[in-house]
Write a structure and sequence with these properties.
Oligomer: single chain
Protein name: Ca2+:H+ antiporter
Number of strands: 2
Pfam families: Na_Ca_ex
Organism: Pseudonocardia thermophila
Shape: globular
CATH architecture: Up-down Bundle
Order of helices and strands: HHHHEHHHHHHEH
Low-confidence stretches: 197-209
CATH superfamily: NCX, central ion-binding region
Strand order of the largest sheet: 1-2
GO molecular function, one term: sodium:proton antiporter activity
Keywords: Membrane, Transmembrane, Transmembrane helix
Mean pLDDT: 82
Number of domains: 1
Number of helices: 11
Length: about 375
């Protein structure tokens, strides 16, 4: 990995905070919105860089978990900040973002990593026990939180009643907690790359020449990570009206806003997973992908549920029939991929084509 602390990685969070102070609450002209958008993307990338530094310090599989949680914090912050000014039109934003995150991680990231690994190493190996369990947890949470509301009858529309929403939030937290326990304590060796020794997993990269950063460096990165997260959420709030106007201008459905949020926050996660796949460490890529999907559902749904109940905001969670089909196909193909413990470039192509189908349907429902 790159040097943990450089002028760029230190200055970017500070510059993002300054931009937030200047732009917050103002009606920005077009050029200023473009500048803020660039700073926002830079802050997201730097935020995950610092999460990687902290992750490198603690080692696998804790490292992948830290990255996933950091990305989810950004996601929740973006959803809440945009929903606060979106009114009823934002009622489906959480659903659209979480579903997009599942499709991006389980098809986009997994497919890209399989393609890179298959091209460079022909046949790639990973831990079927850990990956299959993680995928099962993702499919379970996605079905309970995003599919079930379409079919419940206590409340009208694709919604949960208050008690159902509380139950879904509790189930999400419990299952995410069990996953974290299994990944980091009980069956930690199931989530290590196949060539790693479970008793010597302190090096995230396992490159032999990359030493973990010092505790002092990790603490500085932790502080810069927090600063970056604050800046990302605030800057997103500042330019969210412009994003929504742009979506309307091109005639796309508002679900595209949720897809855009998920693509933004998962971009650095995608880069980290792709780098791991290039080093023939596909298990690390899977940890990042499925861990992000689980964190997206397991942490986002409870957070959105609390705000919805406290402020009585409308919350549409149920997927449409088309989206249910895509989710079901993702679960089927994903299961066939992870059960063998090995994969070739064909599986990567299948996942990427399924991801392309999701993007096309989002633009042309």
């Amino acid at each position: 990995m790159h040097a943990p602390l450089t002028l760029r990685t230190v200055a970017t969070p500070i510059a993002a905070l300054v931009a937030l102070v200047i732009a917050f609450g103002m009606e920005l002209p077009g050029w200023a919105v473009a500048v803020v958008a660039i700073v926002l993307v830079a802050a997201v990338l730097i935020a995950v860089h610092h999460a990687e530094v902290v992750a490198h310090r603690v080692g696998e599989p804790f490292g992948s978990l830290i990255l996933a949680v950091a990305v989810t914090v950004i996601e929740v912050g973006l959803i809440l900040s945009i929903s606060a000014s979106g009114g009823e039109e934002a009622a489906s934003l959480a659903r659209d973002t979480v579903f997009a995150a599942v499709m991006i991680t389980c098809n986009g990231i997994v497919g890209l990593c399989l393609l890179i690994g298959g091209i460079r190493h022909h046949v790639v190996s990973f831990q079927a026990e850990g990956s299959s369990g993680a995928l099962a947890a993702v499919v379970t949470l996605a079905t309970l939180c995003l599919v079930l509301p379409t079919f419940t009858t206590t409340s009208e529309g694709p919604t949960f009643s208050a008690s159902q929403l509380v139950f879904a939030a509790i189930v999400s937290l419990v299952l995410f907690g069990v996953y974290v326990f299994v990944q980091t304590v009980r069956h930690r060796d199931y989530f290590l790359p196949v060539d790693d020794d479970p008793d010597s997993a302190d090096d995230l990269d396992h490159d032999g020449h990359v030493d973990p950063p010092s505790n002092r460096t990790a603490l500085i990165s932790l502080g810069l990570l927090v600063a970056s997260l604050v800046a990302v959420v605030g800057l997103a709030k500042t330019i969210s009206p412009t994003i929504e106007e742009g979506v309307r201008a091109i005639g796309a459905p508002l679900t595209v806003v949720g897809v855009a949020i998920a693509l933004l926050v998962l971009l650095p996660e995608t880069l980290a997973a792709a780098r791991a796949a290039g080093r023939d460490r596909l298990q690390t890529s899977f940890n990042l992908a499925y861990g992000s999907a689980l964190a997206s559902i397991g942490l986002t749904i409870p957070a959105i549920a609390v705000t919805s109940l406290l402020f009585e905001n409308p919350l549409l969670l149920g997927l449409s029939g088309t989206e249910v089909v895509l989710l079901a196909l993702t679960a089927l193909i994903g299961s066939l991929t992870v059960l063998q413990g090995t994969a070739i470039v064909l599986q990567g192509a299948i996942h990427l084509l399924l991801f392309a189908s999701f993007l096309f349907i989002a633009l042309q429902p």
